[in-house]
Write a structure and sequence with these properties.
The chain is mostly helical. It has one domain: Fic-like fold (Orthogonal Bundle), CATH 1.10.3290.10. The protein is built from twelve helices and two strands, in the order αααααββααααααα. Strands 1-2 form a two-stranded antiparallel sheet. A hairpin with a 2-residue loop joins strand 1 and strand 2. 35% of the residues are buried. The model has no long low-confidence stretch (mean pLDDT 94).
Length: 255
């Protein structure tokens, strides 16, 4: 499976394609729906909340307006670091080097310095209440997987894609990255950042405003269930990927 695979596009287009242009046209990209700075901060808060950060959007915004730092300081800095990574991505092209730089920026609070901005050198798994639920690719194969991953991204970025294709591939980038799980920690944040980064590269800066992270947080159980396509990297069944691939466009429905 590669991120340029169109195998599921026709089914995706059947499920969502006919509505997608209307959903995008109906979405308020103007400042009345919050300027880019506000939407960036909201994206960082909700993405952090998915990973267990307890600071809600209202508390985070109040801390910035009043310039008052409060407990838990570590969680506050974690969100601020992710805001910085989003702001970096909004100014830089989507490349492998820049993804590593973004990871270095946002992972200071939960990854030791020697592992920030580099791919992992150890096995990692995803754990749930029942124990291990997914085992990612072995560390010795991560660099090769990511090399191919970004070669495919480069091809896609050099191709004129339709609106429907752009949303499809952005979602597939998110999903495949989560399955490779290339970092020791911060993979979920990076996957959600990459999805928006690709959208904006193809469609314009205003697409950073789409509230995907908020939608994923509000549908967190569904989000995790839809990502899980197998127990390990070699037994993933992408025939079951459509529920996940349609979540990004669905984030526009009630925006």
């Amino acid at each position: 499976m590669t991120i340029a695979d169109r195998h599921y596009f026709d089914k995706f287009n059947f499920l969502i394609g006919g509505e997608l242009r209307e959903l995008v046209d109906r979405f308020d990209f103007t400042g009345q729906n919050g300027d880019l700075n506000y939407q960036t901060q909201a994206s960082a808060v909700y993405s952090s909340n998915i990973e267990g950060n307890s600071i809600d959007l209202n508390s985070f915004m109040n801390s910035r307006i009043a310039n008052v730092k409060f407990e838990p300081q570590k969680e506050l800095r974690e969100i601020e670091d992710l805001v910085s990574a989003y702001e970096f991505a909004q100014k830089e092209p989507l490349t492998e080097v820049n993804l590593l730089k973004a990871h270095y920026l946002f992972s200071e609070q939960f990854v030791i310095k020697e592992l920030r901005g580099i791919y992992r050198n150890e096995k990692v798994g995803v754990f749930g209440q029942s124990g291990l639920v997914y085992l990612a690719v072995e560390p010795e194969y991560v660099a090769a997987e990511m090399k191919g991953f970004f070669e495919e991204i480069s091809k896609l970025l050099s191709t004129k894609l339709s609106l429907e294709e752009t949303f499809y591939f952005a979602s597939l980038i998110h999903l495949r990255f989560a399955h490779i799980h290339p970092f020791s920690d911060g993979n979920g944040r990076a996957a959600r950042l990459l999805e928006k980064w690709f959208l904006a590269e193809q469609l314009g800066l205003e697409f950073w405003k789409i509230p995907a992270e908020k939608y994923y947080k509000e549908h967190q159980a569904e989000y995790y269930a839809n990502i899980k396509l197998g127990v390990n990297f070699y037994e993933l069944n992408y025939d079951k990927s459509l529920p996940f691939l349609t979540m990004l466009p669905n984030s526009l429905r009630n925006a």
